[in-house]
Amino acid sequence: MNFPSINPTTTEAWKKLTQHFSEVKDLHMVDLFNQEENRAHKMKITWNDFQVDFSKNRITDQTISLLLQLAEEVGLSEAIQLQFNGEKINQTENRAVLHTQLRDFEIMKPEVKRSLKKMKKFSEAINKGKWTGFTGKRITDIVNIGIGGSDLGPKMVTNALHYYKNHLKVHYISNIDGDHVSETLKNLNRETTLFIVVSKSFTTLETITNTNTIKDWFLKGATQLDIENHFVAVSSNLKEVIHFGILEDNIFPLWDWVGGRFSLWGAVGLSTCCSIGYSNFKQLLEGAHEMDVHFKNEKFSNNIPVILAMISIWYNNFYKSETEAVIPYTQYLKDLVPYLQQAVMESNGKSVNRNGDKVNYQTGTIVWGNVGANAQHAFFQLLHQGTKLIPVDFIGFSESLYGNENQHQILMANFFAQSEALLKGTFLENVENPYKIFDGNNPSNTILISKLTPKNLGALIALYEHKIFVQGVVWNIFSYDQWGVELGKKLANNKLKVSNL
Ligand code: F6P
Prior knowledge:
alpha/beta, 2 domains, five-stranded parallel beta sheet, 19 helices, 11% strand, binds 6-O-phosphono-beta-D-fructofuranose
């Protein structure tokens, strides 16, 4: 079975969707709700601790049915099978795409099991004080040095699961900004700090430069021999890591079948695993795996990643909407959007199709957003009364973690009020002046999860990973390479050579 390569605009479904769009594009969602009593119930998927309400979209039953026909026609079912079977679907890099293997305990490859075991042992040793710094003191701080997928994923998860963390303070250094490195080191003690250098390639300029700076700082108060207690690496490039001076025993592996932006589930998540402990980390993986099973086996009409991906395609390719906002109603998820920006835009920001031809339709959406309620007091004005159509994903949790019911009720009242305001506007009201009119009809999905647990977070991240995959399949692009970042790197290196830096 070959990975499908079908121009979506040539499908029957696309033609029908084009016609259908011209018929429904001006419908107001308020009318749709009035016409269909059970719309809210019908357009909702309940799965484990998740309730995904997609009723507040500019869609009808026919829209969904045509979008799902499109998914079938472009070969999504085959594509899903091929991905999970480990076929080399990342054809431009000749690699399989198997981050889902990192969280499937049943069919886990032996090398993944070994790596997890090593992570467990290491994180326990750090936490119990069995692994100490060079003067015998317990490790109190961990610094993760990495960029892109070697930073955004683990940082987002570590911060999202702050409630579950232990005594360790975890810091993330990514930018090639010496001031940030100095600011971070300023408050750290060499004797009690562990550095995790995360770089799949181990050639990334930012990471290697920052690591060199940090190593120099470390050696001002310690010896070369002490490096082994304080520097570990996560990489697929063993040779470079050893050459750099990190002990082979201190290297955690990464494989070419795991893309950087999908790698938080393995050793790239070592900082997270140390911070929340192995058992919470395992639950994160289990939650993601449950979402994998849902995605792989559930029929498209009840399949959360498929439905959300196809609705997003509806806006991107028919309404010509350019961006979508993600608004989590919890401070813990403040790093979700930057993480998604890499996952989504590095994956689907492509303009050449799987046959090597330029596409003649829009691909990757621009993702942006911030946590609610803060976002309401920043850019929501534009969502409510601006000229652009911006679909929103609202993410909220029924229960708070510390049980402050009063504040949680206020938070969630805002969460529900915003999607209602976007939907209804002042459509049915008499408004005294034009500046106070809200047209409404602004689409949103509501992802309501019972509680922010490691398991539910794992499932939420996996949901977005699969949404990315579905969209890449439909747009007929290669989602798992990132050639678009290479030219800038080359030019920066050339400039450095010229200026002899
Ligand atoms: O430049 C983009 C990129 O290659 C990302 O895809 C990746 O996550 C990041 O750089 C870091 O790469 P590495 O882990 O090899 O240092």
